[in-house]
Amino acid sequence: QREKAAVRIQAWWRGGRVRQTLLQAALRAWAIQCWWRSAQAKTLEQRRRLALRLYTCQEWAVVKVQAQVRMWQARRRFLQARQAACTIQSHWRWHTSQTRGLLQGCYEVKASHLELDIEILMA
Fold first, then answer.
1. Contacts of 106 (CB under 8 A, 6+ apart)
2. Under 8 Å CB-to-CB from 48, ≥6 apart: which residues?
3. Which SMART domains is this protein grouped with (predicted)?
């Protein structure tokens, strides 16, 4: 009788120890899983930030290239317009120098005298 009671007490004690050990193991596993999930979340966040940073750098590079191309095109158009204006001005100056403030006329030599017909044009 006493031996049966001792076996029962020992079984109960061992069962309690096993349950306690299993509970501690489950709690430790849960703590490890929580840590792992947070580490995974941090890693994922770092990857996301890196991808965002790379995307931002690429976008800025594209914007800079587009701005440089637009500037180059605008400068080319400006230089073409300036060259056209210089050409027009030089031709206009040449034309006005040919027609303004110069003596225009004709002369004719006859046997006994010189006949001059002179006009002075001032514009």
1. 117
2. none
3. IQ
Residue pair 82/104 in contact by the 8 Å Cβ criterion: no
pLDDT digits (tens, 9 = 90+) for 44-96: 999 999 999 999 999 999 999 999 999 999 999 999 999 999 899 888 888 77
- Of 31, 50, 49, nearest to 39 by C-alpha is 31
* Percent of the chain residues past pLDDT 70, beyond the cut: 79
Q: What is the pTM of this model?
A: 0.47
Nearest by Cα to 103 from 80, 122, 84, 81: 122
